[in-house]
Amino acid sequence: MASLTSIATPYHSSSYPSSSQALRVKVTGNTLFSAGVRFPASSSSSSLLTIRSAATKPDKPAAEVDWRQKRELLLEKRVRGVDVKEALRLQKENNFVILDVRPEAEYKEGHPPGAINVEMYRLIREWTAWDIARRLGFAFFGIFSGTEENPEFLQSVEAKLDKEAKIIVACSSAGTMKPTQNLPEGQQSRSLIAAYVLVLNGYKNVFHLEGGIYTWSKEGLPIESEEED
């Protein structure tokens, strides 16, 4: 793989447009050598900030594992999709829990009653050399709110649900494990990535909400929202 050696892009500290897009940066091995950002001429500073020291990339997150590998494990562990009406019935009659893995802001706007929220992705929070380099990479494409896989996802789920819990994982529109003519291996999504993490770590009763919260709402099923503080 080729290494990323430098990035120069306008940076506006007062502008942080919202985005859920992700950027994959190719590196040599696990090391990113340098990156930089140039401040605009109108700024009080007009110099190139460069990260010279090497930054070691963290272990590969679940999102970067090949989808075919994830799909194989999901099928092996008998993770199956349920439609929104079946999910509502299972929640009411069989003590199933809906695990909403969307960002907290989306969850608060509207979610199935009783659903538990644990974000699968969150805004990049840390300021290590690697994280700074990733921020610069997002900024290069005009994205000032880059996201990352939530490193506390599993820990947060474990604090709320035991390994025997019956879980239906949900995101916005969901992917599918079902093959189609255009997608012979299905299509991954945040909820399927989350389901992969759960079964990989010993959860035994994991299901996937087909169509996601979008279809749940479209079908006129119950939705509740939370007021912002």
Task: Quote the distance from N terminus to C terminus.
Answer: 46 Å
Q: Average pLDDT, to the nearest integer?
A: 74
- In which order are the strands of the major sheet placed? 5-11-10-6-7
- The geometry reads as globular
Count of DSSP H/I helices: 7
Indicate the structural class.
alpha/beta
Radius of gyration, in Å, reads 20 Å
- Residue ranges: pLDDT <50 for 5 or more in a row? 1-58
Give the key terms.
15% strand, 11 strands, two-stranded antiparallel ribbon, alpha/beta, globular, disordered N terminus, 229 residues
Provide an overview of this structure:
The longest helix is centred in the middle third of the chain and has 12 residues, at 129-140. α1 (67-76) crosses α6 (190-200). By secondary structure, the protein is of the alpha/beta class. The chain is globular, with a radius of gyration of 20 Å. It has seven helices and eleven strands. It starts with 30 loop residues before the first strand and ends in an 11-residue tail after the last helix. 28% of the residues lie in helices and 15% in strands. It has helices at residues 67-76, 84-93, 104-109, 129-140, 153-160, 190-200, 212-218; strands spanning 31-32, 36-38, 48-50, 55-56, 80-82, 97-100, 116-117, 121-123, 147-149, 166-170, 205-209.
